[in-house]
Design goal:
The structure is a single chain. By secondary structure, the protein is mainly beta. The protein has a single domain, classed as Porin, CATH 2.40.160.20. Helix content is about 10%, strand content about 60%.
C-alpha cells in the first residue's frame, strides 16, 4: 500500500504544482516488448543473451515549455535472460559450433522511470532520456531440471538510465506514440550473500532495448 501511495503522491505533484493551479498535463497508458537482460560475467564458453518480455505502464507528462515535457512512467516490467553455452560439434551434419540455452532467468520489477521528452517543432518527433528505479518483485530460474524461485541471488533493486526517441501521431487531443529506447543498468546485481560465496564474484548488470507504444490524452489548456 505504501508504494501505491508514493506513486500517487508523485503523480499528484505533477498534476497539482505548489501554486495550486492545474498544470498542462498529458495522461496515458503504455506497454510493449522489452529485450532487457543480464550482461556481464558468465561461465567459460557461455554468454548471456536477452529475450523478449512484456511490460505495461502509466504515462504522466507535465509541460515545462512548448518543446520540453517532464515525464514519469510507473509500471511493471518483465525481463528474461538466457545463459547460452557454445558446444563444438564437428560432425558432417553440424560442422560448426552450436549455441544451446541451458538456463533462463526471468524477473519482474516495479519500475519508476523519470525523465524528459524534447519535441521537434511539429511535436511529432521527440527525444527522451532519464533514469529509472526498479524494485524486484519476482525471480524464477528455469533449468532442464525444472523451475524454481531462488532467494538472495541478485539484489532486490536496480537503477538504470535510458536514452531513446519516438514518433507521436496526433488525433485531436489524443495521440499514439511509438518509441524505442536503450536502457543501461548501473548496479552490480550480484547480492551480498553471493559475493561472500565467490573468491572473485562475477559482475552482472541489466541492459537492452525497449519498444513502447502508448495512447495519450493531452488536457486542453
Amino acid at each position: 500500500m505504501s508504494r501505491t501511495v508514493l506513486v500517487a503522491l508523485i503523480i499528484a505533484a505533477f498534476v497539482f504544482p505548489a501554486g495550486g493551479a492545474v498544470a498542462q498535463v498529458t495522461l496515458g497508458l503504455g506497454g510493449g516488448l522489452s529485450r532487457i537482460g543480464i550482461s556481464g560475467d558468465a561461465p567459460l564458453d557461455a554468454s548471456w543473451a536477452a529475450r523478449f518480455a512484456a511490460f505495461a505502464d502509466l504515462h504522466v507528462e507535465l509541460d515545462v515549455s512548448d518543446d520540453v515535457g517532464l515525464v514519469v512512467e510507473p509500471g511493471l516490467q518483465f525481463r528474461s535472460s538466457a545463459l547460452e553455452h557454445t558446444i563444438s560439434t564437428g560432425t558432417a551434419l553440424a560442422p560448426s559450433d552450436t549455441t544451446v540455452d541451458s538456463v533462463y532467468v526471468n524477473t519482474a520489477y516495479w519500475s519508476l522511470p523519470v525523465g524528459i521528452r524534447v519535441y521537434s517543432a511539429s511535436r511529432r518527433w521527440y527525444f527522451t532520456t532519464g533514469a529509472a528505479a526498479h524494485l524486484l518483485q519476482k525471480i524464477e530460474i528455469d533449468t532442464l531440471d525444472g523451475v524454481y524461485e531462488p532467494d538472495n541471488v541478485i539484489q532486490n533493486y536496480d537503477v538504470s538510465v535510458f536514452l531513446g526517441g519516438g514518433y507521436r501521431i496526433p488525433i485531436d487531443q489524443w495521440s499514439v506514440c511509438l518509441e524505442a529506447r536503450y536502457q543501461q543498468g548501473l548496479i552490480d546485481l550480484i547480492s551480498d550473500d553471493q559475493q561472500q560465496t565467490f573468491h572473485q564474484a562475477p559482475v552482472i548488470r541489466m541492459s537492452g532495448l525497449l519498444f513502447r507504444a502508448s495512447v495519450e490524452w493531452r488536457f486542453a489548456p
